[in-house]
Amino acid sequence: MRTVQLFWGLVLLNVAVVWTLFFTIAPEPKHALVGVGQFLGLHAALLMILQLTLVARLPWLDRRVGMDRLTSWHRWTGFTLFWVVLLHPLFVMAGYAAVSHSSTWQQFRNLAGMLGSLVGMIALVVVVVAAAASLRSVRRRLQYETWHAVHVLLYAAVALVLVHQLFEVSAFTAAPVATAYWWALWVFALGALLVGRIAMPLWRNARHRLRVAAVVPESDDVVSVHISGRDLDRLPARAGQFFIWRFPGYARWWQANPFSLSAAPDGRTLRLTAKAVGGASAALRHVPVGSRVFAEGPYGAFTSLRRTRDKTLLVAGGVGVTPIRALLEELSGDVVVLYRVHSRADAVLLAELESLAHERGARVHLLAGRTGAGSPPFAPFAPDNLATTVPDVAERDIFVCGPPPMTEAVIRALRALKVPRSQIHAERFRLAA
Q1: pLDDT tier at 252 (50, 70, 90 boundaries)?
Q2: Sign of the CA dihedral running 146, 149, 151, 156
Q3: Mean pLDDT, rounded, for 251-275
Q4: Are the beta carbons of 412 and 418 closer than 8 angstroms?
């Protein structure tokens, strides 16, 4: 919690600095509407820098906040950026149109003829496309690889915004202190991105030299891939975390997928288990043994380090069982597992869960059936039903991973049962590019 407060405190501090610079040293705008547009432009640059920081995947921030929460922040920051970037040129064009007694369309044509404004407009188009691809109704229809490729284009938008800012002389370069401040922010954000997304993954992969050791089908549409490498005992991975996996030479470089570890790291091998939901994940069962593997990570705070109690409840839905299975292997004490599936045939890794539970004295409840079916309706995560299955649920840490509707249903039930928020840990299937 302290890390979250510190992070957003720093964000608000920078907002205050931007406001101070704008109202004290920025030149007087030619029109009030132009001033509003310039004010929004400053916030667009600040939001872009914030986005770079959120997607840099810095280990320090990820371990304390969690990739799931960082991705949620990224999503809301992205939609805020969309509206700010959209309104920024509209106000500027309206202001200049009022000053010159011309049409907004004429001002658009004038600005499009200037290099600094033109690159800003191109960046706006990229941001609009990425925002459209992130709408839930659109996102559900896109394969993960397509969605990821669209979001990679945002790095081109970042470069265009930086060029646009360099050509903007009203507020960014009005005084040496403003120039130094903005350059410091950009250097920090771009440096964090280069370290977190490029330098660290390259160093780790050169060190560990990951390769496919085995490919094991778990069902018709689920496969496990075993990964071997050097010095894996020095890789700081924990049960419950995930990596971004690439298989260069077999799949295209931009086909990267986030898959959780489905077994606790043992210092010798890593294992991922994936369901075929896209082209890359469906092709995993055909990856040749010995293929090179490139992995970014480990990421995520969905680990036993988040425990606050001796007792634990693990709740899995569908292929969300993968980090749950890994956690069960690592956890000690009183552990209960709830595994939600449509039918027993869908319960991949069930035999492993039951074997681990037998070894550790844990209990596994398979919750199979269609929600709402039968009489009374099947509703395993209704508060009363959950309390019946796990009477001491309020005394446990709860780790939840599964499809969003199931995860939200579990969290609602836990809140209705007065389980403290500090004991609820959720991993959702979403990731920033």
Answers
A1: low
A2: negative
A3: 87
A4: no
CATH topology classification for 307-427:
Rossmann fold (3.40.50)
CATH label, 210-299, candidates 2.40.30.10, 2.60.40.10, 3.40.50.300, 3.40.50.2300:
2.40.30.10
DSSP H helical segments within 101-199, as ranges? Answer: 104-112, 115-134, 136-139, 144-152, 154-167, 176-194
State the burial class of residue 130 (Cβ atoms within 10 Å of its Cβ: 0-12, 13-18, 19+): buried
SS3 63: helix
Task: Please give the Cα distance from 243 to 229 (Å, whole number).
Answer: 15
Residues 6+ apart with CB under 8 A from 284: 215, 223, 225, 247, 274, 276
Contact of 134 with 100, CB cutoff 8 Å: no
Given CA atoms 352, 358, 361, 362 in this order, what sign does their dihedral have? positive
Tokens of 394: 């309020």
Is residue 378 within 8 Å of 369, Cβ to Cβ? yes
pLDDT at 281 (0 to 100): 62
> pLDDT tens digit string along 26-61?
778 888 998 898 899 889 889 989 988 988 888 777
Give the residue among 105, 86, 104 at the shortest CA–CA distance from 94.
104
Rounded distance, CA 26 to CA 23, Å? 6
Please state, in angstroms and rounded to a whole number, the distance separating the CA atoms of residues 34 and 96.
7
Per-residue pLDDT tens over the stretch 69-94: 777 888 888 889 889 988 998 998 99
CA neighbours closer than 13 Å in the CB half-sphere of residue 115: 4
Own/partner contacts of 202-211, CB < 8 Å, gap of 24 or more, are 204/235, 204/295, 205/294, 205/295, 207/231, 207/234, 208/232, 208/235, 210/270, 210/292, 210/293, 210/294, 210/295, 211/290, 211/291, 211/292, 211/293
Q: What is the CA radius of gyration of the chain?
A: 25
Cα–Cα distance for residue pair 96/118, rounded to 1 Å: 16
Strand order in the sheet with 311-317: 363-368, 335-341, 311-317, 396-401, 424-427
Q: How many residues does the chain have?
A: 433
HSE-CB for 393 with a 13 A CA cutoff: 28
* Cβ-Cβ contacts under 8 Å for 417 (sequence gap 6 or more): 383, 386, 387, 393, 394
| CB-count exposure of residue 247 (10 Å: 0-12, 13-18, 19+) | buried
Helices (H) and strands (E) counted in the chain, each on its own, are 16, 11
Q: Which two tokens stand for residue 96?
A: 């200049």
